[in-house]
Amino acid sequence: MKVRMKELNDIMRNTARAYHDVAARLGISACAFNILYILCEEGEGCRQSVLYKKSGIGKTTVNSAIRKMERQGLMYLLPGEGRNTCIFLTDAGRAFLKEKIEPVIQIENEIMDSMPQEEQTLFLDLNRRFYLEFTKRASGEPGQKEQDPHEDHPV
Is the dihedral of CA 121, 126, 127, 128 positive or negative? Predict the structure, then answer.
């Protein structure tokens, strides 16, 4: 493995670990953190399918986390169009988002805002380019069975 790729992998793992640690300090799982974070982006009434598509976490894991937060009184589900299920926050869920998740988003915004506009653009462009090129190259492996990227897979 090239040194640059190892460095990038270390950065990505450390960043993921930092978010995991934030979730742990908030007393929630990393999956619950991701769900609540996406609800901040998407707003209430978000389809459950959006949560596992955007998070990259398996359907079963997302469903379990949603059910747990439902039991904790943070959210509830309502049927949507067709087979869709929509997620809504309770008053306690909205308070949790405002008190716990929104400050994390504020930190992220402050970090991005501390960079000059050109660096922000470059940072996003390079990350987007790497992601798009990787997914293009990694999805076309000969002899590989294509799998649903949102299904749970053993480690």
Answer: positive
pLDDT confidence band for 82 (50 / 70 / 90)? confident
CATH code of the domain occupying 29-136: 1.10.10.10
Q: Which residue has the tokens 């769900």?
A: 35
Q: Which token pair is 36?
A: 């609540």
Q: Is 115:103 a contact under the CB 8 Å cutoff?
A: no
**Bridge partners for 88 per DSSP:** 76
Question: Hey, which residues does 89 pair with through a beta bridge?
Answer: 75
| 3-state secondary structure (DSSP) of residue 79 | strand
Helix (H, G, I), strand (E, B) or coil at 85: strand
Q: What length does the chain have?
A: 155
Listed by start position, the domains of the chain span 29-136
Q: Is 47 helix (H, G, I), strand (E, B) or coil?
A: strand
pLDDT, tens only, 37-71: 999 999 999 999 999 899 999 999 999 999 999 99
Give the 3-state secondary structure of residue 97: helix
3-class secondary structure per residue, 65-108 = HHHHHHHCCCEEEEECCCCCEEEEECHHHHHHHHHHHHHHHHHH
The pTM for the full model equals 0.84
Greatest Cα pair distance, the chain, in angstroms, is 50
